[in-house]
Design brief:
The chain is α/β, with parallel strands linked by helices. Among the domains are: 128 residues, no CATH class; 131 residues, 3-Layer(aba) Sandwich (Rossmann fold), CATH 3.40.50. 65% of the residues lie in helices and 8% in strands. It contains 25 helices and eight strands. Strand 6 and strand 7 form a beta hairpin. Helix 14 runs antiparallel to helix 15 and helix 19 packs antiparallel against helix 20. It is elongated and about 110 Å long.
């Protein structure tokens, strides 16, 4: 009897909850709260609202639930307005309550239907979007939102770090830095960017660092429709910057229904001294400016970073790269001295981080330019690509080595991988065309270099390469037009020398070749002499270049102008000196 009485009491209580619309209010409150949170999650990042506002909103909604239930229990809506519940109802009030309950039921059902429809639509839409274009994303340069707009270096550095982290997402094609950074400060719509980069999603955002604190705002955009798929704000200590990068990558992976690849390196566990990280990003920013002064300043910042954090390997790689740039490209320091310093820094970096891809890529360059060790360079690049399969520079330099070895198809395959990820990377089209020309595939050589010129009509080397393709086709007039558009004076001079020899104007061609010899451009001078028919002079210059350890000799197998010498025994001898296969 007691148990039956207990059941009757429970049923009576449940009936009272229903009668007073408490259950209906609970459901309506939950649905309304969810809608409010969803809307806020989209709008708050738009206004750069801090994280605590969303947390406060959720806490307020949770605390408000018992209050709403208590109000529903204690008060009732009658034809005469809101009154305190007294447990007795007139016939008119009972009819009114029934109508009110039905209205609440209808509103809840409509709201629930909308919620279900939202989840279904979001799942289908996101799945279709991910399947389309095989999942492709571009990380646009993050905006510098510091009060004095003096932290561009930090925003750019974070963008590159995010780009590299997102490359670990399985089945996601991440646009390379060269193409993505062409849209820095771009004011157009996202659909335009999506079409040019051949992506369907875009990650953009902003960064602001003050003292040891950093705020990162990130937005994942559907490029076709311009809709925000996900957004978040991170207010953290600068020491936690790698954790923020990892959190953003995981959030993007969830939004795209993808999965991060386990590379064995947990970026969230990395700890770098904040001051060292800032100095490193400043050095990286200066290093990209490609002037002697900026390279030297970059080295200073990298040294500061190493002093602040001796276990930070990346600044050591930066110091190596800057020394190689000063020694090889800018001839601002002694060649052997620069290479020696770089090699030492890389050894230190690899002791700290044995699988650091950038370090292996720089090591490969040193082995490549030191002759006889292209095989060693190839191994270094393969090690880099094992750590980071999408490393653009590693792919490019491996393709270059393939071309040097006469493996033209392998080279073009590598360059195509880069083009797929970095479609606006103009030098890659030039490299592809260079190998196609060496292989004798003139239609592909012409088609590829013309693509480069569509993206950048004034690109250095591209018009020179087009002129060579036209010369190989026998179209001297078109070659003259192309070489006149070449902006670099050395390439333009070499092109005019080649054209003169092909036209039969030997004296003009030889005069230009002699000028190049005076400038120590021995390899290119040899190309002109060969087109003018002076084979003995060609090998004299090539021998001099070998004595000087001229890195240009590693491109012997890529030279269209000297294909006629490939069966000459003297050619084979120099190939052996350089370390190239016969």
């Amino acid at each position: 009897m007691k148990s039956l009485h207990g059941i009757e009491v429970q049923m009576s209580f449940i009936n009272k909850l229903k009668q007073r619309n408490v259950i209906r209010v609970a459901i309506a409150y939950a649905v309304g709260s969810w809608v409010l949170v969803e809307v806020s999650s989209v709008l708050l990042p738009t206004f750069n609202a801090p994280d605590w506002i969303m947390r406060a909103l959720v806490l307020l909604l949770v605390c408000g639930l018992p209050v709403a239930l208590l109000v529903a229990w204690m008060f009732e809506i009658t034809p005469d307005g809101i009154k305190k519940e007294d447990g007795t109802d007139t016939a008119e009030e009972m009819v009114f309550k029934a109508r009110t309950s039905r209205k609440i039921d209808l509103a809840v059902m409509v709201a629930l239907a909308l919620v279900v429809a939202y989840f279904v639509f979001e799942k289908i839409w996101t799945s279709d979007m991910v399947r389309g274009n095989h999942g492709a994303i571009a990380v646009l340069p993050f905006s510098d939102m510091s009060s004095e707009r003096n932290q561009e270096y930090f925003a750019d550095g974070l963008t590159v770090e995010l780009l590299n982290t997102l490359s670990r997402i399985a089945d996601l094609r991440v646009t390379g830095k060269t193409s993505a950074f062409q849209f820095k400060d771009f004011k157009g719509d996202f659909s335009t960017i999506g079409k040019k980069l051949n992506v369907n999603t875009i990650l953009e955002g902003s960064v602001r660092a003050d003292d040891n604190k950093v705020r990162v705002t990130a937005n994942l955009i559907d490029a076709k429709h311009g809709q925000t798929m996900w957004s978040a704000i991170y207010d953290r200590q600068l020491d936690d910057i790698f954790q923020v990068q990892n959190e953003i990558a995981h959030a993007v992976a969830r939004a795209l229904q993808a999965q991060l690849i386990d590379t064995g390196e947990q970026s969230s566990e990395r700890v770098v001294v904040a001051e060292a990280y800032i100095a490193y990003q400043q050095g990286t920013f200066l290093q990209s400016k490609l002037t002697i002064e900026d390279q030297q300043l970059a080295i200073d910042y990298f040294q500061q970073a190493v002093l602040k954090d001796p276990d930070f390997a990346e600044p050591l790689v930066g110091m190596a790269e800057a020394n190689l740039m000063l020694a090889l490209n800018m001839v601002a320091i002694d060649r052997d001295e620069g290479i020696g310093k770089a090699d030492g820094y890389l050894d230190q970096a690899l002791r700290l981080a044995p699988d650091l891809a950038d370090a292996h890529v720089a090591k490969a360059l040193i082995k490549q330019i030191s002759f006889r060790d292209l095989f060693g360079a190839e191994l270094e690049l393969r090690h880099a690509l094992k750590s980071d399969p999408t490393h653009i520079t590693a792919l490019r330099r491996l393709g270059t080595i393939y071309g040097m070895q006469g493996r033209y198809d392998d080279a073009m395959e590598n360059f195509q991988k880069i083009i797929n990820r970095d479609p606006l990377n103009v030098p890659t089209y030039s490299n592809y065309s260079y190998n196609a020309l060496a292989a004798g595939n003139l239609p592909v050589a012409e088609q590829t270099i013309n693509k480069a010129l569509v993206f950048s009509p004034e690109s250095v080397f591209a018009n020179f390469q087009l002129a060579r393709v036209y010369l190989a086709q026998g179209n001297v007039q078109a070659a003259e037009v192309a070489i006149d558009r070449e902006p670099h004076p050395i390439w333009k001079k070499i092109g005019h020398g080649m054209i003169a020899c092909v036209q039969g104007d030997g004296p003009t061609g030889i005069l230009i070749a002699e000028e190049l010899v005076a400038q120590r451009e021995l390899f290119n001078a040899a190309e002109i002499y060969n087109l003018c028919g002076d084979t003995d002079k060609v090998f004299e210059l090539l021998q001099q270049a070998a004595t000087d350890k001229d890195p240009a000799l590693t491109e012997m197998k890529l030279s269209w102008a000297m294909t006629s010498l490939r069966e000459d025994p003297r050619w084979h001898e120099i190939l052996q000196v350089v370390g190239l296969p016969i």
